[in-house]
Every structure is written in structure tokens, then in C-alpha cells.
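sorry for the late reply, my laptop died twice this morning and i had to redo everyting from scratch. anyway the thing you sent over, i finally got around to it. pasting the sequence first so we're on the same page, its 99 residues, then the predicted structure underneath. double check i copied it right bc i was rushing
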Amino acid sequence: MWVLQHNFGEAVVAHKKESKARTMSTHVKGYLQETTVHGFRYVVEGRTVPERLAWVVAILLAFAYASILVHSAMREAEDNPVSTAIEIGGNLSGIAMYS
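ok and here's the structure:
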């Protein structure tokens, strides 16, 4: 939509901003409709507004729970590091060693 103003350059900038926002919205909606991530499709294709809101809430709760699990695993790894060492000993006479 064009908005006529005194300065023609401002009208062009306003139109470009609206066009970019509309393009971004179109891309996001297209991604949500075509993604295979369960639940995202129903955010845009839900039959009713409460159904779509329920999917948004479910997705946000799933991401929050996943974040908590990752944080917990990271903290566990920091608190209890695993050290792996391989000691080679004994008789190595039958093994060809190259240097």
C-alpha cells in the first residue's frame, strides 16, 4: 500500500518496509506449513484460534523442557567430568611399531 507524503522518498521507504515485513511473514508462514517438525504446522493451519494457541503453548513448553534438560546435562558434565585414559603396557614385541 502506498502512502502519499510530501516527500516522495519517504513514501518509497515506507512501501519497502511494509513489503519486507510482508515477505518475511510469507516465508515464516510457508516454513511453518511445510516443516516436518511436529506441531508447527498446526500453528498456522489450526481450525480454531484456541487450537492454534494450544499448539503454540505446547511448542513453547516443549522448548522450555528441552532447555532445562540440556542445562541439566551440561551442569552434570561440568560437575562430574569423565576422564578417559588408555594405558599401553606389557610385552609389545609381537606388534609392529612405526614411527
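The chain has three helices and no strands.
thats about all i looked at so far, will dig more tmrw
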